[in-house]
Structure formats: C-alpha cells, structure tokens
User: What shape does this take?
Amino acid sequence: DGGITQSPKYLFRKEGQNVTLSCEQNLNHDAMYWYRQDPGQGLRLIYYSQIVNDFQKGDIAEGYSVSREKKESFPLTVTSAQKNPTAFYLCASGQEFTDTQYFGPGTRLTVL
Amino acid sequence: AQSVTQLDSQVPVFEEAPVELRCNYSSSVSVYLFWYVQYPNQGLQLLLKYLSGSTLVESINGFEAEFNKSQTSFHLRKPSVHISDTAEYFCAVRSFDDYKLSFGAGTTVTVRA
Assistant: This one.
C-alpha cells in the first residue's frame, strides 16, 4: 500500500519542550514538504526538501528544524523557540518536475 | 511570487442544490492550478488540477473547475451537492518553475438536508 504516513495523529507537549513529528513516504518521491495549518489561514510552507541531504526554508521556518537523511523520511522538529506551536501539521511529497503534491493525514500538536 | 484569494470563507448549501467556490490568483508567470478537499481532521486530497490544454477540468465525483486566464480565476462548481460533500476546499497555485504551492485560506462548505 503506497502513501504517506504521519505519526502520531495527536501530540501533546508542555511549553518549552522540543517535539519531533514523523513523516514517511513509500512513493519514491524526491521532494517532501512540511506545512502548518491554522484555522482561516490555509496552509503555510515551513520547510521543503528536493533531494536527500538538502532542504530549504519555506515561508515560516523560524522555530522549526528538519533533516533529510533518507529519501523516504522527512522529520520535523518543533523547537521551544517556536512561539505559537499549537497547530495541525501536514507533510506532503511529490515527484521532481511534476505537479501534484500528495498529503499525509496530519498531526495535531497541542502545546499545554 | 504568487498568491491565491478564495472569496468565500463559508458556503452553506442545501442538498441537491448547485455550489460554486470562487478562487482568484495572481502571478507574474504561468501557473498550474489545483483544488484540494479536506475532511475533518484529515489530510488534503487532490480534487482536480489544471496543467494545460482544455480550460475545463473535471473530477470523478462531479466537481468541475474552469481556468480563466483573462480573469485569473479557477472557480470550482458542482451542479448538485450531497451531504458527503461537506468539507473544506482549498485552491492552490504553483508556478511552472517552482516546487512550492501557495494556498488560499479555504472555503468551508456545509451541506444541509
């Protein structure tokens, strides 16, 4: 079964703690993306990666970090520097030079 | 850089009535256009896309969208909605030379019996 998996579905953390969100894909896609979704604001790009061991900041990268050590994995760390981390986080992937991005089911992060 | 405006944040509609969701974009270069649908607490699913060719594109579940270059619009329509069409719909644009998608703020469609 091909697709994108994100875990966990719900995540609770205390303020000041770093937390890592998992994203795995078995679609053999080169490009992977992380978005943040807040009510009434659509999706905003946090980071993206076109190939292994390379990634670029998106529009709202402050307070986040990523790694791309394997083609199928693109974990996102929400650091304590992120001032308002409570949100729904979506991971996506796509083939280089094609059009469509495929999304995972999302992780809802709540910081208490 | 490109941007997307979805003109309606909430669209209530009765079952079997038609619906239109409006989307306008701005870009200095040629673009690809997309509509995604999101059901509660789920990820986004691609509904339909315009890449080139015919300006009218259709989805398998009865939605259609028409690319209008002169008006920089990509409105989504369905002639008769079902309760199951209740969801949030996002319009997105991507320029030919970029990986990044720019999303609109979303339109929540609520279908009532």
About this structure: The longest strand of chain B covers residues 87-95.
